[in-house]
Design a protein that fits this description.
Layout lengths: L1 H17 L3 E6 L4 H16 L3 E6 L10 E5 L5 H9 L4 H5 L3 H20 L2 H7 L9 E5 L8 H6 L3 E5 L4 H11 L18 H21 L1 H11 L10 H6 L3 E4 L15 E3 L13 H8 L5 E5 L11 H12 L4 E5 L12 E4 L4 H5 L4 E6 L3 H9 L4 E3 L4 H13 L2 E3 L7 H13 L2 H14 L5 H15 L14 H4 L2 H41 L1
Parallel strand pairs: 1-2, 1-4, 2-3, 4-5, 5-6, 6-7, 8-9, 8-11, 9-10, 11-12, 12-13
Helix pairs in contact: 2-19, 3-5, 5-10, 13-17
């Protein structure tokens, strides 16, 4: 009897594994940090007995029988952005006009997708509809919108993983549900005390942004037509419509770092997917931090901004201030050494940030304000000194200041005196640590962990196939309809018609009255 139970249990497990879904992951963006956000979710899906095919430039890091890795060449995204702008590094790129930088990034994004779709392994998967074996597609959403066309062609649901901030991709969906007078262009600085003229201006700004969003996607439409129009799958929808039809978007952010705003059910915040349980730090960093009896500071500008590209004035200012600190400083930096390097400074090119921030001697985090690094600092209750360079970093660090967990120092104002003052403020004011602990508790207090929530919603889509119960009605509505443009025009015509009718009636009545008075006068003269 026992043997039959064991056999039945084994067959049950086997059946469950066989019935696991086939999931295709498309991750073209050449960023290790982006892939670090995706990797835990895909790993969890594989361990839940789904069969994963991941196409990326990065490897998983562990061997799983039901996880197939297709490694494609890495596209040098940010070097191409620099070339398009005619600058030498990303610090120079940050000084370009916002429009120029935006256009360069959008153009490079389309080139990235074109490059990705040209790879032989990708072509092999797309070549035959009959051999397309996947039940679901997951896309890293970072200027990769043309990849959503694969879902339409093969008639399978698409899920987006968005590792950047909310503003870049979600606003058009939200504005389809909430007019821009209530859904401002910048939640971080918006106030209910805005004047009438400012609120009217906000509507026009948001309308222009929606229009610009469609223009931005023209290059993605061209890439989609290039690679998919010859597959004989009928008329291709505009990429903007495909974004609206996405089953769900998993947003790698979470309150309170994500400013509250109106949302829609299929945009699901799951911030922190990249943060793993604390692991052992490499020996030289561990020894350096263990010896930091006066405390330690972790400094990182991220992966896009290289400290070797810093101009000499700012680099010298940073080194000079570090040399005067009693704390030790670990700097995530691509340089092996700097001039006049103080003894309390360790330069390290490879650092696992979340593990370093978990070290008990790390007192605060100096950062350019990337979203993923801020989440790591918040989870580890570490106060922040932000030195933003790009627009999204400025937005992120405004939130940090609003939450009371750090200070923002503009990169253009980075001098020896300003940096020393900021560090002194963080060191001597205990309220930053108190608020950091409070915000950390709020960030961690949720029904499911970030990876668990992600896998739950992915499996929810796999279970029901249809996600119409999560998508808002009229997500593809135009700005003209959203702001009741047709109704307003008709009402204006009706009002003008009534005014004209009233005016004509008045003129006719006046003429009739005048005629009567003239007739009375003539009758008296007779």
């Amino acid at each position: 009897m026992r043997s039959f139970l064991v056999l039945g249990f084994y067959l049950g497990l086997l059946a469950f594994k066989v019935n696991g879904a086939n999931i295709l992951g498309l991750f073209p963006y050449p960023s290790q940090s982006h892939f670090n956000s995706i990797q835990p979710v895909m790993t969890r899906l594989a361990k839940n007995n789904h069969n994963i095919t991941s196409i990326s430039s990065f490897r998983l890091g562990e061997k799983l029988d039901n996880y197939e890795e297709i490694i494609v060449p890495m596209y040098d995204f940010w070097t191409n952005v620099q070339n398009d702008l005619g600058v030498k590094n990303m610090f120079e790129a940050s000084r370009s006009s916002p429009n120029s930088l935006h256009k360069a990034v959008r153009k490079t994004g389309a080139e990235l997708v074109d490059f990705f779709l040209q790879q032989s392994k990708v072509q092999e998967i797309l070549r035959s509809k009959e051999n397309f074996k996947y039940d679901l597609i997951i896309v890293d959403l970072f200027h990769t919108e043309a990849l959503f066309m694969i879902g339409q062609i093969f008639e399978v649901p698409v899920i987006a993983l968005a590792s950047s901030n909310f503003e870049n991709y979600m606003t058009s969906l939200v504005e389809s549900a909430v007019p821009s007078a209530c859904s401002p262009i910048d939640y971080e600085t918006y106030s209910q005390d805005k004047s009438f003229s400012q609120r009217v201006s906000n509507i026009f700004e948001c309308t222009e942004r929606r229009s610009q969003r469609h223009k931005d996607l023209i290059s993605q439409d061209e890439v989609a037509k290039k690679h998919f129009s010859g597959l004989g799958r009928g008329t291709l929808s505009p990429v903007s419509n495909l974004l609206s039809r996405t089953s769900i978007t998993l947003l790698n952010n979470y309150a309170p770092l994500l400013t509250p705003r109106p949302s829609v059910p299929n945009i699901i915040p799951v911030g922190g997917t990249h943060i793993k349980p604390t692991q052992e730090i490499q020996w030289n960093i561990k020894r350096f931090l263990d010896d930091a009896r006066e405390g330690a500071i972790y400094f990182s500008l991220g992966t896009v901004l290289k400290c070797s590209d810093l101009d000499s004035d700012k680099l010298n200012a940073i080194v000079a201030v570090i040399g005067k600190l009693k704390e030790k400083v670990l700097w995530h930096c691509d340089l092996k050494k700097v001039d006049n390097q103080p003894k309390n400074l360790l330069l390290q090119n490879i650092v696992i940030s979340s593990d370093v921030l978990a070290h008990p001697h790390v007192t605060f985090f100096m950062t350019s304000g990337g979203l993923l690094g801020l989440q790591e600092a918040i989870l580890r209750s570490v106060p922040i000194l932000g030195i933003p360079v790009f627009r999204d970093q400025h937005i992120n660090l405004r939130i940090v200041e609003k939450l009371g967990i750090g200070i923002k120092l503009d990169f253009t104002n980075l001098t020896e005196s300003s940096l020393a003052w900021s560090l002194e403020k963080l060191t001597t004011d205990p309220s930053f640590l108190t608020k950091a602990r409070e915000i950390s508790s709020k960030f961690r207090d949720r029904p499911l962990g970030s990876v668990q929530a992600s896998t739950f919603w992915i499996e929810h889509i796999l279970k029901f196939k249809d996600s119409s119960h999560l998508r808002i009605v009229g997500a593809e509505i135009s700005s003209y309809e959203l702001y009741f443009g047709d109704i307003v025009v008709i009402l204006l015509f009706v009002i003008l018609g009534l005014i004209l009718f009233g005016y004509l009636f008045y003129r006719i009545a006046t003429q009739v009255q005048k005629k009567r008075e003239e007739n009375k006068l003539y009758s008296k003269l007779r």
